[in-house]
Amino acid sequence: MKTLARRNWLMIRRWFAAAGLGAAALSVCLITKVGHDYASLSAPPRVGDLPLSVVVLDRNDRLLRAFTSQDDKWRLPVELPEIDPLYFRMLLAFEDKRFYEHGGFDALALARSALQSLRNGRIVSGGSTLTMQVARLLEEQPTKSLERKYEQLLRAVQLEAEFSKEDILRLYALRAPFGGNLEGVRAASLTWFGKEPGRLTPAEAALLVALPQSPEARRPDRFPEQARKARNRVLHRAAVAGVLGKEDAASAANEPVRTIRYAMPFLAPHESRQARADAPLLPVHRLTIDLELQRAIESLARRKSETMPSPVSLAILVADHQSGEILASVGAPNLLDTRRQGHVDMTRATRSPGSTLKPFIYGLAFEEGVGLPESFIEDRATNIGGYQPTNFDQSYQGTVTLREALQLSLNTPAVKLLEAVGPARLIARLKRAGANPVMEKGIAPGLAISLGGLGMTLRDLTQAYAAMARGGEPVALSVCRKDCEEGTAPVSSARVLSEKASWMVGDILSGLPQPQSAETHHVAYKTGTAYGYRDAWAVGYDGHHVVAIWSGRPDGTPVPGATGASVAVPILFEAFQILGPDRVPLPDGPAEAMSVAGQQVPEPLRFARLPQNRGTVRTGDTLQISYPPDGAELDLGFARDSSLEQSAQPLVVKFKGGAGPFSFLVNGRPLHTGQRERQLVWQPDTPGFADVTVLDANGNSAGITVLLR
Questions:
Q1: What is the DSSP pairing of strand 662-666 with strand 688-695?
Q2: Helices 423-432 and 358-367 meet at what angle, rounded to 10?
Q3: What gap in Å lies between CA 551 and CA 568, rounded to an integer?
Q4: How many H helices and E strands in the chain?
Q5: Which helix (H) or strand (E) is 652 found in, with range?
Q6: Which pLDDT tens digit goes with each residue over 511-544?
Q7: pLDDT digit string (tens) for 540-584?
């Protein structure tokens, strides 16, 4: 018996030894396989590699518009500080209490899950950590099989080795599913709550925690009761974990679940589309648009368009002419309105500007000494080389001042003044402003451009009027804040108009009726109506903003009876009211302009000096300035050091021909009248451009512009 017992004991020992060796070998094989499988894992995707939605932000980084990602998901970029911390506290309390302690998997949670499953005969809890869930979301593979669960566990360990805990949380915040094509906390918050996730209520945070577990079955818009129950389980767990007080959790559990699905922000759609087209590889576009102002201006455009026949569209542009920033831009009342061709951005469409260019013609006339605001001009039927302009109402006003002619937008005086200053010069000045006037190919600019015989965009006009508002100094209007590209026309460093001429024009235009600010004279504006009622315009400015309105049909079909005054002006002043009830006053004019204002017009300028007044002189030769030549740069010795007192030699202007006595205008200001000597000696105060005009007794004139240094 003892021998048999001893033999059995030896057999048992051998069996245990063999089993131990087998287990050790199995462990080695298992460890080897795990190590091999881990080493075979591909590199995990970085946050920057995820296909995200392209977003367009306003001047304060608020969302204007988003585009779906390359895989057609609403997956908006978001940083952890942009999400309410309450969400993360509730997420970890519900999904992964030991998130900051484990290295990818939680052994205790996995063991608990296995025991619960064995006890209940079904899966009660998955035991997955938040990191394992991120691994599943990145792989986009189901994990119902043990093989997939094993791969997920390996990937989770890899993620923990490669990334920080904050990176893993951000990956979850970007990729967690929330129903339909919604992914990420930001997209979910905007869709289900209509707001950014920066400030969430306990009920909202709990719903965002609950949805990713079963995003389709718990969609609030389809299954609100299931969503409510899942949300309340999260609230209960948060209360048990001490994340929420019991009273706060109970109060949040009583809140109804919103069943509305909010639309993704869709502001400034045309500018957003253009920004993306200009820089298609840029993930974030930052614009100068002001979200609240944009929303209000778009609302104004929609409200006004509802009173118009359906083919008629509307465009509005609002800019800060001091900084050049475009604050609001509406290319059409509704991008998706096919009846009004809403997809067409009418701020960039080339149209006839009607009479909106007349202020620049008058400005050139003032600048070149053709006349002053109180100079007279004849508004009568005229024929200039076969061109016979007529006024809009087919009537004539007779003798009027230039001020009255511009305020009444009379056509004949504008054409006469353009003949005096030259169409090519008007085009050149508009280009200085950064505008891009469009002429028929091969056709030189003619007198018809004074009445809208060329093409301009709403942006062109806004840019030109911005220069006028700045005293003739051009400014580049831009909708790009930073890190974006924009195809804007270059702006010259030379003035569009002199400061004096710009102020005179603004003084005239601010004298027009002010529909919503009677007798304030704070808004200078001009209307325009294209031939055949095809385009209705109004452009205006105060001391800070410039606003431009266009209305018409995108296809160019006439809109009978629609004029700038009847259609565009009311919208213009409502837009100014949206900017604030108090207007920023227009600045005072320069000293040389103020000295002329209210003074009696010099006799030579009692009537505007038009080409027909410059016929053959009755005595002597044609009046000509012999020195200096037009456009010359003269070094008069102005001190170059601003700390030194400036002193310079006088400017000597010599001329010949004409009939004395002679009068002179320097920068539009009368000087030395009744002189018979054939030279002018003038002492300038400062360097810069100087316009000098000589007039003789017969009303003939000659002028030059020189740069004094």
A1: antiparallel
A2: 100
A3: 7
A4: 20, 19
A5: strand 651-656
A6: 998 886 555 668 999 999 999 999 999 999 999 9
A7: 999 999 999 999 999 999 999 999 999 999 999 999 999 988 888
CA distance 594 to 201: 61
Structure-token match 């169409």, residue found: 423
Sequential DSSP letters for 446-505: -GGGGGT-SBB-HHHHHHHHHHHHTTT-----B-EEES---------SS-SS-HHHHHHH
Strand partners, 552: 313, 535
Cα angle 351-356-361, degrees, rounded to a multiple of 5: 120
- Asked whether 329 and 479 are in contact (CB, 8 A), the reply is yes
For residues 377 and 608, the answer to whether their CB atoms sit within 8 Å is yes
**Catalytically annotated residues:** 95, 355
CB 665, CB 671: distance < 8 Å: yes
Q: With contact defined as beta carbons under 8 Å apart, do 434 and 474 qualify?
A: yes
**For 415-449, b where at least 16 C-beta lie within 10 A, e where not — what string?**
bbbbbbbebebbbbbbbbbbbbbeeeeeeebbbbb
Rounded CA separation 301/298 (Å): 5
- Helices marked H in 254-377: 269-278, 291-305, 358-367
**Which of 453, 424, 415 is CA-nearest to residue 610?**
415
> Does residue 532 contact residue 549 with C-beta atoms inside 8 Å?
no
Return d(Cα 221, Cα 680) in angstroms, integer. Answer: 84
Q: What does the angle CA 318 – CA 319 – CA 322 come to, to the nearest 5 degrees?
A: 155
In terms of Cβ atoms closer than 10 Å to its own Cβ (0-12, 13-18, 19+), residue 251 is: middle
Residue 51 near residue 71 (C-beta atoms within 8 A): yes
pLDDT of the residue at 25: 52
Q: Which DSSP state fits 564? A: I
Handedness of CA 238, 239, 242, 246 (dihedral sign): positive
Helix, strand or coil for residue 534? coil
